[in-house]
Known about the structure:
Oligomer: heterotrimer
Distance between the termini of chain C: 48 Å
Bound molecules: adenosine-5'-diphosphate, magnesium ion
Radius of gyration of chain C: 19 Å
CATH architecture of chain B: 3-Layer(aba) Sandwich
Structural class of chain B: alpha/beta
Amino acid sequence: MNSGSRRKTIDTVLKVALAVLVFTLPLWIKNPTYMQILIFMLLYAYLTTSWNLVGGFAGVLPLGHSAYVGIGAYTSTILWITWGVSPWLGMWVGAFIAAVVGTIIGIPTLKLRGAYFALSTMAFGEGVRVLAENTVKVGPCVVGGPQGICLPLVPGNNLALFQFVSKTPYYYIILIMLCIALFITWHISRIRPGYYLAAGGEEPEAAEALGVNVSKYKVWAMALSCFMTALGGTFLAQLTLYFYPKQILGLDFSFELAFIALIGGRGTIAGPVIGALLLRPVSEFTRIYLSSVLPGLHLVIFGAILILVMIYQPFGLVRPLSRFYDRMLDALSGEKKKER
Amino acid sequence: MALIEIKDISKHFGGLKAVDQVSISIEKGQIYGLIGPNGAGKSTLFNCVAGLYPPTSGKVIYDGEDITGWKPWNVCRKGLARTFQIVKPFQKRTVLYNVMVGSFLKTSNPSEARDRAMEVLKRFNLADKWNILAGNLTIADRKRLEIARAMATEPDVLLLDESMAGLRPNEVDETLDEIRKIRDSGVTIFMIEHIMRAIMTVSDRITVIQFGKKIMDGTPQEVANDERVIKAYLGESYGAA
Amino acid sequence: MDFDIILQAIINGLLTGSYYGLAALGLTLIFGVIKVINFAHGSLLMVGMFTAYWIVKLTGWNPYAALLVVVPLLFLFGYGLQGFLIKPVLIAQRDVREPTEVIIVTTGVWYILDNLALMLFGAEYRVVQTSVSGQIFMLGDYIFPKPQLYGFIITAATSFLLVWFLKYTKMGKAIRAASLDRDAASLMGINQYRVYNIAFGIGAAIAGIVGCVLIPFYYVFPTVGVVFDVKCFIIVVLGGLGSIPGALVGGAIIGLIESIFAQFIASTWTELIVYVVFLAVLFIRPAGLFGEKRDW
Ligand SMILES: Nc1ncnc2c1ncn2[C@@H]1O[C@H](COP(=O)(O)OP(=O)(O)O)[C@@H](O)[C@H]1O
Ligand SMILES: [Mg+2]
C-alpha cells in the first residue's frame, strides 16, 4: 500500500458519508420546525455563497445584499400574482433585474476604496427598503407598502407553481441550488477570472499593472452575485409565502450575510457554508430560548460571539476547522498529511 | 525611431511640479537608467508612462503609437510591464499564485498559466518557494517576486522602480545579473535606481533628474563625471550602496 | 410657496443638520485615522444619551452640565474599546490594505450595547424635562428652538476645538500623520496604537456630546443610535470619508433636504429623497464632496 492512500480512503469515506447524510436528512427528520431551521441554514449558506463572489473573491464588503434578495422575491411574486407567471420563470426575471441593478450600483462604487463601497451598498439597500415601504401599488401590481405581500395559497404540493405543503421539496431545491452555487464559486476560483478577482481584491494597483482591468472583473462578480442572490429571494418568498420590507429588505439581513461569510472565512469556498452552519443555529436557538426570558440577551450573546471569533480567528473558522480535520485524519489513518 | 519616446512629460500635484518637461528616448534592447535624488520625481515619471495616472502634459510614444494616458492594464497588454518601488505582492497568496496572475495575460488556460509561471520561477530561483505565502517572503525574495511576476506577462519592455534598494551587496550583484539576462533575452529595460554603483555598471544610457527637471543624459561615463550630477548627489549621501 | 416658510425650513434644516454633522464628525475622524467603520457609533451616542438622561433625571442638572461627565466617560470607553477589542484584530490584519473584518467587532459592540440598554431600561421611549426643553428664541418672525440653537453652537465649538487640536498639538499632528500613513506615527516616536486609541476616544466623546445635545428635545430608547447610524454613514460618504468639513457640510445637506422637502411631501418620502440625492452624488462625485481619491 503506497503511503497516504489509507488516509485518502478515510477522507473519501468521510466525505461520501457526509454527502449521503445531507441528501437523506429529510428521511430522518420529521419535525417541521427542525426542517425549517435546516432549510434556512441551507438558504443562508446559498445566499452567503452568492455574496462571497463579490464580498469574498473581489475583496469588497457589500452590506446591502438584502436589496437583491428583495428584488428577487418581489419580482417573481408580483409577476405571479398579477399575470400568473410561474415563480420558476419569474425568478429568472428577478435575477436579471438584480444583475442589472447590481451593475449600475457597482460601476461607480467598485472603483472606490472598500469603505465607500460598504457604506454605499448599505445606503442603497436602505433606499430600496424605504422605496418598497412607500409603494403600495404600481399600475396593476400590488407591492403592499410596509405590510408586504402575502402569496395566495395553492392547494397541495404544486411543483409548477413552486409551492409545497411538505418541507422536503424545499429542502432539496435549496440543497441543489447551494450545490450549484458552490460549484460555480469553486470553478471560478480555478480559472483566470478567479485569479484576477482575488488579485484585484488584494492589491488593485499591482493587478492592474499585470494587465487586469480590476473594476471590470469586480463589476462582473457583482452582477453574478446579485443574480444568484435574487434567485434565493424567490426561494425565500415561496418558502415563507409572506414577506415585508423590514424583514426581506432589512439591514439586519444584509449584515447577517456578511457576518456568516466573515465568521466562516471570507473568500474561501467552504466558508459561507461553515459560517451558516455555526451562526444560524446560534441565532435561532438563542432567540427561541432566551428572548422570552430576557429580551435582548440573545443578541448580546450573538454580539459577544462575533467579537470573540474575530479576535481569536480574524480570518474565519475555515482555517482552524480544516486544520482540525487534517489532524483527525492523521490520527485515524496513522499517516501524516503529505505536504504538496 | 526609438522604441519609447517620452516627450516633454510633466506631472503636477496641485502646485508641486513633480515632473517638469522631461524628454527621454529609449532604443530597443537598451538598459536605460533613470537616476536622481529622493523625491526627484522618478517614480512619478514611471507612473505616467505606466498609466497609473495621466501626465499633466506631454506624450508617451511606444513603438510609434501614442499611449499617453492609457490605463495601466492596457499599457501592460501592449507589452510594458512594471514593478513598484514599494513592492505589492498578493500577500495572502502563494508565490506561484502571484506569478500566475502575470502569466494569465498570455493564456487563459490555467494549467498552461501554471506551467509558464513555474518556468519563470525557475529562472528567478524561486521555484523551491512556490508554495510559500508571498507575505512570508524575505525582502530580497519579495523584490525578486515583483520582477518575476512582471516578467510572467512576457513583456517587451520592463520598467523597474528601485529593484535593488534595501538589498545586500551580494543580492544587488545577483539582481544585476538577472537584469542583464533579461536584456539578453530581448527585453528593453527602463530602470530607476538610487544606488549609483548598480546603475552605472549595467546601463547603456542614463538620464539624471532633479526637482522634476532633467539635468542631463549620457553614457554612465559622462554622467559620472558631470559636475551637476555630483552636486545633486553630494547634497545627500553619495554612493549610498 | 411662502418665502417665510421656506426660510424657516432652512433654519430648521441647518439646526438639525448641525447635530447630524456633529454625529458624523466622530465617525469620520475614526475612519480617517484607523480606516475602520465604527458601526457602534450610534450605540456610543445612545450610551451618551442615556447617561445624560439619568444625570438630568436624577440630579436635575442643566443638560449641558452633563457634558462634564459624558465626555470623559465616552472618551475612556472609546479608548478602551479600541485598545482591547479592535487592536488585536488590527494587529492580526496589519498586512491587509483595509482591515474590513474589524467591522464585525464594531457591529458586535453595537449589538451588545443596544441590547444591554434594552435589558436594563426596557424598550420604551423616554423623555426628560430639562431647563431648556421647549424654549424658543425669536429673531424677527423666525423661530429658533433653544436646544437646537445650543446644539448648533456646541457643534461649531467642537469642530473648532477638534481642528485646532489636530493642527497645533503634538498628539493632533501624530493623529493626522497616522491618518496619511499607518506607520508615520511610529516614525514620530509615538506608538501607533496609542494614537488609534486616542482618536477612537475622541470620536466616541464626540458621539457623547451629540447625546447630550439631543437630550432636551429627543426621545431616548435603546435603538436610538440606529436612526443616527444610517444617517451618519450617508453623511460621511456624501461629504467624503475622513473629511471634517465633509461631515459638517454633509450633515447640513441632509438636514436641509429633510426640512425643505417636508414642506412639500410626506416625511416617509423625504427619507427616500435623501437616498436619491445620495446615489446621485455617488454617480457624479463618487469619492464624496470633499473626498480625495487617495491611496491608503
Ligand atoms: N500622489 C501624489 N500626490 C502628491 N504628491 C506626490 C504624489 N506622488 C508623489 N508626490 C510628490 O512628488 C515628488 C516626487 O516623488 P517621487 O516621484 O516618488 O520621487 P522619487 O521616486 O524620485 O523619489 C515628491 O515630492 C512627492 O512627495
Ligand atoms: Mg521613487
